[in-house]
Amino acid sequence: MLSIAAPCIWGRYDMRDVIYDICDTIEVNGSIIEHIPVLAEILAEQIKLPQDGSMVDATIGHGGHSYLFGKTLGPEGVIVGLDVDKNAIRRAQFKLRDLACKVILLHSNFSQISEQVHEQGLDKVDFILADLGLCSAQLADSRMGLSFLQDMPLDMRIDKRLKSTAADIVNKADEKSLADLIYKFGQDRASRRIARFIVRERESGPITTTGQLAKIVCKALGSARRGRKSKIHPATRTFQALRIAVNDELENLKKLLASVPELLNKNGCIAVISYHSLEDRLVKNDFKLNGKDNIYRVITKKPIVPTREEIAENRRARSAKLRIAQKQ
Question: What is the model's pLDDT at position 13?
Fold first, then answer.
């Protein structure tokens, strides 16, 4: 049976060794990038799988979180890992190759979790984990086109099977649609001004790179936010909005959350790590609704957030929120 809020399953020294093991350094575009799974130690302290347990890592990434739990699984245990990024699947395959348990890695969106799990001959599982964040390698990969810190093709498709890119939206959507998108998914109150500047700029030629778009947004917000101190880059919210739209992230998350109750064994758990309020609100409301219907017992009345020490070691963790619910 899966245990919740159990004592740490490793000693403190051993845990530090395991956390070190799940960190990766990889080369992307000629640069060495370090990837550190977020809230890994806290997850290990909260959830203990039996040796024959089964879990789905809905966003396998580099396999760090799955490696953490896979170390406690025996030959009868199973990990099913999903990801829309083919490169992530390859990295996870390498990371998890020596685990004793069975590992099944699938190039699939987590919105299809039910179909994928059942196709592997599993009826229900003990644990489902979804880390909704981008990894450092994806942000640094010029083929992804996700970052404004360097000039990249304006793509933003995590899954290259998708047809529309961010450039398609920026260059083809009308001004109102652009403004609505930036406001809805980026929560930027200056969305109309940003959309107006984008439409004006594209009249001179298509906007094709992340650098071009970032400059346009900065130009649009220059006078509107001059003198205001902000912890984030002016283009952050616009880039977030476009990435969510391109990858249909919120709709896919809704489908994942809707599928989970049917997939979990009794006392099984769902854990979701989100990075912005739109995601966290969906998770919070889903857990609350299922709690009222006596489907879930909500373990985290308030989200678990990283310690100062973890944020100091891994800046990507600073906005992470972990919520956990248990199937009744």
Answer: 36
